[in-house]
Amino acid sequence: MLKPKTLGELKASRWGTPAMLKRTIKDEMRANLVRKLENRESLFSGIVGFDDSVIPQIVNAILSRHNMILLGLRGQAKSRILRSLTDFLDDEIPVMAGCEISDNPFAPLCRACRITLQEQGDVAPVEFLSKADRYVEKLATPDVTIADIIGDVDPIRAARGGLHLSDELTIHYGLLPRSNRGIFAINELPDLAGKIQVGLFNILQEGDVQIKGYPIRLLLDVVMVFTANPEDYTARGKIITPLKDRIGSEIRTHYPTTLEQGIAISEQQAWLSRYANERLFVPPFIKEVVELIAFQAREDKKVDKRSGVSQRLPISVLENVVSNAERRAILTKEGRIVPRISDVYAALPSMTGKIELEYEGELKGVDKVVLDLIRGAVGAAFTRHFDVNDFQQIVNWFDLGGTLRLTDMIPAEQSFQQLKAIQGLIERTGALGVKKKDDLPFLVSACEFILDGLYALRKISRDEEKGYFATEKKRTEPLYEPPPGRAKRTYN
Predict the structure, then answer these.
(1) What is the rounded average pLDDT of the residues 266-282?
(2) What's the rounded Cα separation, in Å, for the pair 426 and 393?
(3) Mean pLDDT across the stretch 240-255?
(4) Residues 121 and 7: beta-carbon distance below 8 Å
(5) pLDDT tier for residue 490 given thresholds of 50, 70 and 90
(6) Range(s) of the domain holding residue 52
(7) Is residue 105 within 8 Å of 95, Cβ to Cβ?
(8) Which of 12, 188, 236, 350 could staple 316 via S-S, CB 3.0–4.6 A?
């Protein structure tokens, strides 16, 4: 079916029905949402962990025709959710051809479009705007001006057209008017200057704007959505109270609540599809360790809770872990790429820049804090699969003087020759999914995970020079029997 090209053709099409003439963008989003709910369609594809918390609140906000704000720490998919709101828009809508603010052909707002209708009537040209072009996003920064958001007088346009500066045709529209009949998103709302926040009042409540004191009303048809950090949003002076009062729904996002959700997000976002075949294999316990680093950091008292630990941390770490394993395979000419725990330690640069430390953490140093987080993550992952008390045979091997030094660049064959000397180690890898003993890269990765788990739980020791070795046992019994009258002395 051919699309209408003029206003007359548009009136005779489905867009010219009374219901379509009166429908606002909020009505449009509501109607499409209701249809999706009735058909049991997926609402926010790719958003993991919000099914029972955030998404129902967003659905209620759309059904209520509210403007909304998403409150959450960094890396909680706030921007991704906002951009997904275009899924609730029609595929395309008719607009006045060449209009800066995407005017409705049946009820244009700007003077230029009104003049066009008066002069051309039903032959006035129309065009169609896709839903992707109906989303406008602005990052709030201190240098944003009211002209950027609302608009300003354009003296050059006035001079070229021979117009008086008081003429409405001299207005250069800002981002907000250009979002007419669409979604206007502002990221980090509290960073917007107070006077700019005041400029949003009328849009949110009365639906009009004023530009440079012009006595004009632009009854914009727009959905306004925002994001903010909860601490900034509630801090006095960061955001003015009357603006908060005009936002219909305040929705709080959160980090993944379960390890499985976190792993699913990291797998979805990390670049792991580097090879078309099955050359690359990331063991499940490696994914657990990487994700648990973020979980540990969010609970660590040395990490700033107000800043948060972004979900980008495990995503970046997982990519770096795979890259280090890939580098080893290339240098050692191994066909199969399987990351190890040593690759997690090699991914330290992808962690240190993503956490903010408290005073205690600053004193300790970011590298030491991150190493402790990795150790804690390995220990937590190890206890998900094993009971540490079942590994006394391996601990005894080290207690009898055994040592083992592995690095991230040792080929799997060489590592296996050292690992098989540890009694009882190879046999325990079956619990981690190792089925074939000839899959040396996977086998070595599983063995290294077990050893590092024992180190994390302080059953054995490890350092850069000696590798893995026995933990010195603390002595609490008297080293000698003191003479009568003297207190017994113990040495630890």
Answers:
(1) 92
(2) 12
(3) 91
(4) yes
(5) very low
(6) 7-252
(7) yes
(8) 350
Do 275 and 193 share a structural domain?
no
The CA radius of gyration of the chain, in Å to the nearest whole number, is: 31
Can you tell me the distance from the alpha carbon of 414 to that of 461, in angstroms, rounded to the nearest whole number? 22
- Percentage with pLDDT > 70 across the chain: 89
Q: Residue 134: what residue type?
A: R
329 and 357, same domain (yes or no): yes
Residues 136 and 268 in one domain: no
Break the chain down into helix, strand, coil percent, rounded to 5: 50, 10, 40
Q: Flag whether 1 is in a domain.
A: no
CA 249 to chain centre: 21
pLDDT band, residue 192 (cuts 50/70/90): confident
Q: Is residue 392 within 8 Å of residue 428, measured between CB atoms?
A: no
pLDDT of residue 1: 59
281 to 276, 277, 320, 399, 463: CA distances (angstroms): 12, 10, 14, 34, 28
Look up residue 376 and give its DSSP letter: H
Mean pLDDT for all residues in the chain: 88
CATH code for the domain of 82: 3.40.50.300
Closest among 150, 123, 133, 271 to 211, alpha carbons compared: 150
The total number of structural domains that make up the chain: 2
Burial of 322-336, coded b for 16+ CB within 10 Å and e otherwise, reads: bbbbbebbeeeebee
| Contact present, 69 and 197 (Cβ < 8 Å) | no
